Amino acid sequence: MTEVKRWLSEMPKECDMCHLPLTGHPFVDGKTAFGPWAMMCEACHRDQGFGLGVGRGQHYDKNGVRIGG
């Protein structure tokens, strides 16, 4: 049986990069190409993210279940 990993804090309300709402949408908690980490929508992560995995970022579905990274 695989352990389900979930986002444990309050769900992010908006993308730190473009400020679009994240409520009800997948999001990435990840390192940006500029250095700092951010809560990002998938589009901003594609454009400005540093990838997925340890030290790079984690991808969560709209319910806060980790789906990658």
Task: Summarize the helices and strands and which ones pair or pack.
Blueprint lengths: L26 E5 L5 E4 L1 H7 L8 E4 L5 E3 L1
Antiparallel strand pairs: 1-2, 1-3, 3-4
What does this protein structure show overall?
There is one protein chain. The chain is of the alpha+beta class. The chain has one helix at 42-48; strands spanning 27-31, 37-40, 57-60, 66-68.
Uncertain stretches of 5 or more adjacent residues: none
Total discrete domains: 1
Determine the fraction of residues in helical runs and give it as a percent range.
10-25%
> Pairing-aware structural class of the strands and helices?
alpha+beta
Number of strands: 4
What is the element string, with H for helices and E for strands?
Answer: EEHEE
Counting H and I runs of at least 4 residues, what is the number of helices? Answer: 1
Overall shape = globular
Let me know the largest β-sheet: 4 strands, antiparallel
Rg estimate, integer Å: 11 Å
In round numbers, the mean pLDDT is 94
Widest sheet: strand ordering? 2-1-3-4
Strand content bin:
15-25%
- Assembly form of the protein: single chain
- Beginning-to-end CA distance, first to last residue: 19 Å
